[in-house]
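Bit of a strange request maybe. I'm writing a small parser for structure token strings and I need a real example to test against, not something I typed by hand. Could someone generate the tokens for this chain?
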Amino acid sequence: MTEADILSALSNVQEPDLGKDIVTLNMVKDIVIDGDNVSFTVVLTTPACPLKDMIQTACVNAVKLLVSKQAVVKVNFTSNTNTNRKDAGQVLPGVKNIIAVVSGKGGVGKSTVAANLALALAQGGASVGLMDADIYGPSVPIMFGVRGERPFMKEVDGKGKIVPLERFGIKLMSIGLLVDEKNAVVWRGPMVSSAIRQFVTDVEWGNLDYLVVDMPPGTGDIHLTMMQTVPVTGVIIVTTPQDVALADAKKGIAMFAQAQLKVPVIGLVENMSYFTPAELPGNKYYIFGKEGGKRLADEYDLTFLGQIPIVQSIREGGDKGIPAMMGDEPVSRKAFEDFAAIAIRHIAILNSHVAASRPAEMAV
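Reply from user aminoacidic:
Good idea to test on real output. This should exercise your parser:
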């Protein structure tokens, strides 16, 4: 066996999302051959890659079928998270992808979706931060059980920086960690915009594969400030199946298509899709209507990222500071895992398309 033999065999293994083989994509590294033993490293587009097992099986089969049946194949994995950012040296230089989670109206579970998306990515091996940009109604302190805790400051290059709290393996920042929860944040637009900019420039986020931003509901100042301050990789729209929520979700979709923003929509996720009682996990009761989010995604030619059911444990976990991804209730946990897996695949596809459309010298 030679290295050329191995590369030739692996050129038949497709990266399912990007549509090319892993050799062409330069994903194969460090081939070592010792008799019948072969090892190599596959560089994934994200540590949270949901297709890792599929790629591993395809690699082993390719070597055994096309090179040697006696080969003992060991596939190692590492990751180099894709990014479409061309300004990596300017704003949040250590953050590869910024994902904004938005909704057209309040009460659709946007913060729950953002929190569990961040946790699902972290559990997949990615380094993740969660920024609570909902200045008037911050949820992160309660949902992560850090009420009353305060971040501390440190000096970086002669400038004071806020160090995010860490919980469940992700970095957290929220106005709720800086202001007493009994006090209302009564700020005009310019003050809110200034606070959002500080969350970007004055917080020591460090190196992250993904920064998930929990945006406030609606389409206002904070959205404009965030989209114009940082290069957002894409947005995830959260809605419920009912017509009232869908009408507002349409406004959110329209906002990000405007020329002055032009932020890609990663996809749409439908929350509170149906009620499943704990004692009857196979039953589905469509309280707010059926598949409204899927119809909306089809109407706007968006990726439908999945359905999240109404499960009592999701609400209880959020109130207790233990989100669904950290609990042991299987229905809600699987729903969030499936949603995160689809979202992360489409982020990788989005990044590859953006990189391919740039001149070679600009590609990151």
